[in-house]
Every structure is written in C-alpha cells, then in structure tokens.
Amino acid sequence: MEALRGYVLLTVAVCFHTINGAQQPNILLVVADDYGFHDIGYHGSEIKTPTLDKLAGEGVKLENYYVQPICSPTRSQLLSGRYQIHTGLQHSIIRPCQPNALPLDDPTIADKLREAGYATHAVGKWHLGFYKDEYLPINRGFDSYFGYLTGAEDYYNHTRCSSLIHKGYCGIDMTNGKTPDTTETGKYSTHLFTNRAIDIVKQHDKSKPLFIYLPYQAVHSPLQVPEKYITPYKYINDWRRRTYAGMVAALDEGVANLTNAFKEAGLWDNTVMVFTTDNGGQIHAGGNNWPLRGWKATLWEGGLHGIGFVNSPLLKQKGVVRKELIHVSDWFPTFLNLAGGSFNGTKLDGYDQWKTISEGSEGQRSELLHNIDPLYSQRGSKRYNNTFDTRTRSALRMGDFKLITGDPGNGSWIAPPEDKNNTRLDPSTRSDNVWLFNILKDPNENHDISQQYPDIVDKMLFKLSAYSKTAIPARYPDPDPRCNPALHGGVWTPWE
C-alpha cells in the first residue's frame, strides 16, 4: 500500500539537503482562515487581491492542493506532517474548554527547524489546544509566540465567549509567550499580527535562518474590518459579502507590508514563502467557493480544495501552475528537507514536494486520505460487501478518483451573490452514503459514478479499511469548567 509504506519510509530514507547545498532558506508560512476558493483575484473573484495575485503569478500556483475542511485538523497536519487519524484529532475542532491538544508524541515542524538552527516565531491563531502549559506554542518549538489560543474572537477587543453547560464563559484571548496580554484592546488583529511579524523581521539576527508561522485571524467570522477597507465594495448589496471583501483587502495589504519588510531587511532573496488556506470558505459569513461543491466543514471540494501558492527567488521555474496532488501535511517534510534538517523521531504522512513545486518534477503523491471520522453521526445503511462501514464519514483520493462515504455535509453549489441564479441545491437523499467522482474530469463533483465503477469503489473502500487499522482513537473529551476565564483573571489561559 503505497501511501502507508511512504508513511514509514520517510523516517528512514531521506537525503538531507538545502537548496543546491546553499544557505538554509528563510521560511514564511502564511495561513488565511476560512478563505473561500472563489475569493482570490486569480480565481475570478470580484474581490481584489493585487498582492496575493502578484505573488502567486510570479511564483507557483498549486491548483491540485488540499487542506482539511475545518481549522484544528488542518493546523495539526500542517505542523505535525501527520494525518489526523494518527494524532487523534479526526473529529471536529478543539473547543475552548476541552482538555485536548495536538499530542506531544511527535515533534512539530518548529521543533525540527529550531533543531536545524532556525529562529522560530509564531504570530496569530493557535487552535491546537492549551489546557496545559506544555501545549502552548512557546513549548512546541517556537522561540516566541504572540496570538490567540482558541478558534475565534473579536477582532478588536480580542474577547472570546464560549458556552459551557448553558453558561457564558468570556475572556480576553491574547497571549505573549506564556503570559496573557490584555494591553492590545482596540487594535485590529490583521494589523496587530502583521506589525508583530514585521517587528520580528526587523529585529532578526541574520546569522540564523528565520521561520515565521503567521496564521491570520482573517477572514474568519466575526465580520469586522475598518470602514476604509469596505468603501471600495459599497456596490456589493449583501452586507456579509461586502464586509468580508473588506477583510480580504486588509489581509492582502498585510501580506504586502510583510513581504516588503523581508525585502527591506535583505532577507527576501533567500526566502521561501508559502500561502495556504486552512479550509473552504464559510458561505454564511461572506465566503464563497464557486464553482466547487460544498463549503467549510464538508467533505466536498468546496471544503477541502485549498488556495495555495509558493513564491521564492529560489524557485527554478516561476510563473507556472502545478496540478500535481499536494496536501497540507506535505509542508513539514518539504520545509525540513529545504532546511537540511534531521528526520529522526518523525513518523510522517507528508511528502517532500519541493522538486515538484520548483522544477515540475513528478508529484510524490498518488493518493490522499482526507479523513475518517468514527464519531460523526452515521448516515444510511451499510453498503458493499467490504470491511469498511459506508455509514462512516470519510473521504479518500486515489489518482483522479475521490470516494466519499457517510455524511459529507451539504453538497450544494453556492454561487456568489452577484450570480445567485446559478446556485444549485444538493440532490442527495438522506439514504445516500457512497459517492465516487473523477476529479480530473469532474472537478465540481457534478456526476456521481459510483454505480458505474463498483470495482473502483470496492478498491477504495479496502484502502479506507487499511487506513482505519493505523488510526488511533479519536479524542473529543467533555468540556472542563475549570477553563472559565473568570477563574483566571478574565483571560483564556491553561487551567491544569
């Protein structure tokens, strides 16, 4: 089984190198939150993204690139290089009051880059658990951390409210290192995080390579942005879409300011920048994934097919589009190999994709496990004479084929507000629980071909069964009332 075999081989058969044996590159990893597939300029959006378009156009666009449908799972795979079935995070997100986190069993990419001599910094959203000190970013390989620990909050006062046993638990969620920070109230988070990252660049000791992980809050709800960013979009009638467009504009500006800081500091010529989304756009909060099917939190392409691109003077080919299969878990081994780091102690599901991205070499993946979620509510009845239960929510990509089982979420095709007449509702029934698509020929999942190719369905179900045998139990503990910020001076902070 190719993917499972690769999972083991990466730990024992990796040739360490930097780019052409040269100086270790700086790495800038930018994550946009809930950013829809349709919402970047080069995908035909009415929302203007001149900076992102320019960076992508002068670099490498990844148009067969996948993330997870929700926040914590994508971030866990990004930082660990492992499928969520191997970290116990295969069900839902990490809630503010859950005693749950990315396990300590394996190193993060920050751990390994720091081991390779990098200065490592994280700015922005964490959302990988914080109930104990050891799970804070500062203890997961980062030399510094400034940001918020939960999954969402107010963009200005940085307050997060979470319900627990019908009680409202509210507090400020901003942490500097290990210490809660209540001094940033009133500062818009996109500006705040950009400026913090710029300060890191300005103060960086150039004798060491630099790694900055910048997971922005934008453009996740709540829909908030200074009015000046909304003004160019006054013509958009839908207030959610209009405000969201302004939030995208602020994000685009932030990326421009940060990349300019790299250039002014003389770092850009030896920097690899990666831009990625964490999941599909949330249509109920202004996002859009047209023409893809579904949206955030679904297993349809609109939930999984990410926006991704790489910009770097170190790319051998620039201004190109790659259509090889690439997954968010691939960044770990890609970065670590670029850094010439050691893979000792890692058990990875990702693949080093640098030659594919930079040179156009053959892709390293022929398949991709999107997820298997044993805790999600089952749908329909068991079908096919196979050991894998088709009532279970799962999705698998093998070559051009994608198999979905169980309950994938709403599969409607939602057009942007200006083209709302093109919207089509999900034709599935509640008894349906197996779908097969040829994504190369049918990228928008219009035609279920499971009845035409039962042999392919059976083969992919067998592979899902094989993956299931490698999974660890899903962890989704009950909330702990000791999380209450009122018990900790009005802030979100570790409670155990």
How would you sum up this structure in a few lines?
The chain is of the alpha/beta class and 496 residues long. It has helices at 2-9, 50-57, 71-80, 109-115, 189-203, 227-230, 239-264, 301-304, 331-338, 354-359, 454-468, and strands at residues 26-32, 60-62, 65-66, 119-125, 144-148, 159-164, 167-172, 175-176, 179-180, 210-215, 271-277, 308-311, 320-322, 326-327, 367-373, 393-398, 401-405, 434-438.
Report how far the terminal alpha carbons are from each other. Answer: 41 Å
CATH topology of the largest domain: Alkaline Phosphatase, subunit A
Shape: globular
* Oligomer category: single chain
Helical proportion, percent range: 10-25%
Give the strand tally: 18
Tally of individual domains: 2
Mean pLDDT: 95
